[in-house]
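Minutes, project check-in
Item: structure for the 186-residue chain
Input as provided by the requester:
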Amino acid sequence: MFEYKVIENVLGQEMFNNTVLVGRHSKFKKVDVGLGDTLYLAEVPKNLEQHLINAVSGATGFNLSCIQSFFRLNTPDLNNAIRIHADSLINGIKPTVAGVFYLESMPGTGTALFEHKIFGRYSKDPSRNAIYKREEGWSAYMKYEAVANTMFVYNSDFYHARFPWEAYGHDKTDGRIVVVLFMRQV
């Protein structure tokens, strides 16, 4: 079973700089994803999406296609909740892997993989996405700290969340923006 992998220097410097500009100037839309959760998302240009898929395919050895991708914005006022979850089903399709591409280095923040004392490390029900909003019973067994131009790729059934729960910044000019991709093996 594929667990996780870190891909460094994902984009060339010019494309990376352009990606940061696109992310910071994107029009984010408020998206209700159910269970009282609201995400702030923006569209990822197709050429960027393809570069990221190619990087993940090369690093994992999987032939991948994209199910969904987006820029995601977090600030203390925008989606700052505890949200340990697995991404077992995206748009009715079972992903093989998910990935978070970082636009900036931010010490003490990133993505963590979690283990629950009863549920374990991954969702055993691929027919739904498991989402938990409380910390009780969970412990982070792996934390990947955000480094600019890297991508943290993990099995989409693994329980994960951003860390820390508290986001930073005020808006899209200084908040946490990442690119999220859900991919399946073809």
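Outcome recorded: Residues 104 and 148 are 4 Å apart (CA to CA).
No further action items on this chain.
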